[in-house]
Amino acid sequence: MRNGKKAVVVGAGVGGLATAIGLRRAGWAVAVLEGRTALERYGTAFGIHPTAQSALERLGLGEVLREHAVPYREARIRRPDGTVLAALPLERIERKAGRPELLISRPRLIDALLAALDRTGGAQIVYGHRLTDPADLEADLVVGADGINSAVRTAYFGRTSGPRAIGSVAWIGIAGFETGLYGETWGEGRFFGMTPVGPGRTNWYATVPEATTAEALRDAFAGWHDPIPRVLAETDPATWIRYEMRHLYPALPAFVADGRVALVGDAAHAMTPNLGQGACTALLDAEALARAVAGSAAAAPAGLPAALRAYDAERRRSAQRVAFGSRTLHRFVTARRPALRDALVGLLPGGA
């Protein structure tokens, strides 16, 4: 199976683990460097678009989706008083792709990726490795999957593109009951979303201009339609995750450099979560990169740079369009004067 080539993947998140799986399946020796001392089973749910489902299947993870993911078929956009503005286009996505959007918990997906990597014969995962100089890595291929603060990106692309705050705070959590009401509620400068994630649980997320405490978040959505206040009241704040929303700006001119370096996931195109495509784009990057370097031409020294250029051509424009669309949607959703926004949304299929 081995082709004599060695890859070092920096980062053991979704994109890094998926890349390592793809490269192992293509015959590469792989080492994964992870800055944390252990992978944290944090986070809530990932939406997996049909295109990303196909990528997971090509990486040998189709069974995990069939066993552990839940379909997302019915959701609405609402005003804070509960008035329905429009339906999310989930039915149209399913009709076009022949399969529904799926939701899977982040811990479940991470565990599945680790298990799949082990089935490939394993890759060395080095925990607690804080990368200081990526140029010192001895490998035929270096993959930066180290997130929005990527050391690999900084070393090879400089600091022109970097993390940029957008002035919003996001909170996510899991409620211990099924709300049966899913989608997003858009208010003035803030929104609240709910999705299924598994039996007896609901994934929720919220974005506000600022909220530093659980009580401040509850106050921000007091008086909104049921079950939003109940979700916040009956979910243990100790399990909530708060983070400052950021994205990568400006867009990178390339995802590859030096004939042996490639970026995937947030290292390449960190985006706001509004389209729910962060994990999907990372998975598509990983599978496309592994596929590009798997050919016989890539196995030769002169072939790898061409393979990386092919990866860049396939993924960069597509991923950056998604990132731009997500940031644009964030501006639209968090409008301070929502009357026009709501009127426009009401013109969509399924609108009020």
What this model shows, in words?
The protein is α/β, with parallel strands linked by helices and 352 residues long. It is built from 13 helices and 16 strands. It has helices at residues 14-25, 50-58, 62-68, 90-97, 106-119, 151-157, 214-220, 228-233, 266-269, 278-294, 296-299, 303-333, 338-345; strands spanning 6-10, 29-34, 45-48, 70-72, 76-78, 84-87, 101-105, 124-127, 141-144, 162-175, 183-186, 191-198, 201-208, 241-249, 256-257, 261-263. The mean pLDDT is 93.
Mean pLDDT: 93
What is the gyration radius calculated from CA atoms? 21 Å
The name of the CATH architecture of the domain at 6-69 and 106-164 and 248-330 is 3-Layer(bba) Sandwich
Strand content: 15-25%
Brief account:
With 352 residues, the chain is α/β, with parallel strands linked by helices. It has 13 helices and 16 strands.
Write the layout of secondary structure elements.
Elements: E1 6-10, H1 14-25, E2 29-34, E3 45-48, H2 50-58, H3 62-68, E4 70-72, E5 76-78, E6 84-87, H4 90-97, E7 101-105, H5 106-119, E8 124-127, E9 141-144, H6 151-157, E10 162-175, E11 183-186, E12 191-198, E13 201-208, H7 214-220, H8 228-233, E14 241-249, E15 256-257, E16 261-263, H9 266-269, H10 278-294, H11 296-299, H12 303-333, H13 338-345
Parallel strand pairs: 1-2, 1-9, 2-8, 5-11, 9-16
Antiparallel strand pairs: 3-7, 4-7, 5-6, 10-13, 10-14, 11-12, 12-13, 15-16
Helix pairs in contact: 1-5, 1-10, 2-10, 10-12
GO molecular function: FAD binding; monooxygenase activity
Keywords: Monooxygenase, Oxidoreductase
Domain FAD-binding: 7-322
